[in-house]
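COURSE: Structural Biology Practicum
ASSIGNMENT: Worksheet 4, Part C
STUDENT ID: 0417
INSTRUCTIONS: Below are two proteins. For each, the amino acid sequence is given first, followed by its structure token string. Answer the questions at the end about the second protein only.

PROTEIN I
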Amino acid sequence: MKKIMLIGSIGAGKTTLTQALKNEIIEYKKTQSIEFDDYIIDTPGEYIDNKVYYNALVVTSADADVIGLVQDSTDETSSFPPSFGNMFNKEVIGICTKIDLCESEENLKRSEEFLSSAGAQYVFGVSAINNEKIEELKKYLDFD
């Protein structure tokens, strides 16, 4: 199994994605601090929204095999600067969340472009609420 660290803005769906990957009941929970699980590291949205936390992300990434940049597919903006993923000496993937709420293919492509620009090597589109394409991500991460 690959250990993944999830990074994204407040409300991007990191914690909900964590719950889906762990086959837990989906319920809203605001992540207040970095949360470590056996195979998932869930980071607060404030860590990408405030550059002063970037060093904490780099240090925490030492415990991960894969960095997952999480982008809400309904959000017209991105918090990830170009080449953001290059600061990590790890594999970087992108995860477009909330694809069930995405109004058009154009919006989804925009989200994928945000993630590619940030340095994601592969991009997955998922819906944690509908469990849509979660299995593809689990397979990639070798989750059972």
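PROTEIN II
(use this one for the questions)
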Amino acid sequence: MRKVISFMHVSLDGFVAGPNGELDWVKVDEEIFNHVGKRISEGDTALYGRTTYEMMESYWPTAGDSPTASKHDIEHSKWYKNVHKVVLSKTMKDTGLTNTTIINNNLADKINEIKQQPGNDILLFGSPTATHSLIQQHLIDGFWLFLNPIILGQGIPLFTDIKDKIKLHLLPTTRQFSSGVTELNYTVEK
């Protein structure tokens, strides 16, 4: 069975965005782009909340076409165009979208249905509201976190309204980057 893996940058104090959704504190560089690019290139399904999907859609389909596009932009743009996208949204309509499925109700049933289909892990990118919904329904199987060396003090937390303990197992793929960002990979113990 496929797994849903939440991919997220997080501050040392557990926030995934500033109070207004700002991400200007996230450290990314060529080293991280190359590492992440290798991992996501194996993915065939990307899961987003509506807001993150709209941000991605406004940039990635054409990002690789620019004459000044970086290696990362070219590779990620190609991947983005080919990957199947699943969007959690109560307001979007599933009309005219290429290679995209909208889930607007029966979240657990529909995510579990996708998990039963053949394919690789389902990567949930950013999308704190979607992540919170999936956590509350026990639909996330792992966390791929990039711990940034900063304390924000306030913002949008990664974990909120947790009713039951979630036991995690740290995988041996932990890595520290030269920027000070530390990659942490956890599986959810069932």
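ANSWER KEY EXCERPT:
Q1: The helical segments are 30-40, 50-63, 71-82, 107-116, 128-136.
Q2: The chain has a mean pLDDT of 92.
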